[in-house]
Amino acid sequence: xxxxxxxxxxRSTRIFTPEQIKDEDLTLILKAGQAAPVxxxxxxxxxxxxxxxxxxxxxxxxxCTAASGNPNYHMFYQAPTLIFVAxxxxxxxxxxxxxxxxxxxxxxxxxATALGLGSVYLWAMVNRVPLTEELLHTLQLPPEFKPVSVLxxxxxxxxxxxxxxxxxxxxxxxxxxxx
Length: 179
Ligand SMILES: Cc1cc2nc3c(=O)[nH]c(=O)nc-3n(C[C@H](O)[C@H](O)[C@H](O)COP(=O)(O)O)c2cc1C
Prior knowledge:
By secondary structure, the chain is an alpha+beta fold.
């Protein structure tokens, strides 16, 4: 898929089929994440962890659903693949690590779109939900790393309709050109 088509076609998918994504697609999505820019080139300060183990996914789903208080709310929409992006908060207190994670996340979100997959950027499940040590341990992160965002990826249940950049609402995000 052409670059600008992928940008225009990207949207949040929240209904997935149970079918797992292909290993080669996961590899490409991870590569796209690894290509992202990182502040001060602190590549060692961020980490990507793809989770496809059904038992561990179920544990996360059950924990997040219980925390939400709504038995019908599945915070990652039961996607078959979760890609956690974790970072080490900086000693100087600057929140640049959140921006680093966002760059990695968007690269992967677009890569998933380009591959015809559905995906959604998730913040709540690792920031609004109190996470247990046991759940965090499933990510096998080195000490000091905290999961900052998660990309849920899978096959969209509903076909994703084509969209071009020209079809996007011009005022979706205010943009001004000053000359
Ligand atoms: C930083 C960030 C955090 C988000 N967190 C969540 C989330 O926790 N749960 C969710 O369902 N969607 C989440 N989203 C997806 C947004 O709701 C979605 O991108 C927005 O509604 C625009 O829709 P679109 O992605 O289809 O263009 C998040 C998106 C971003 C960029």
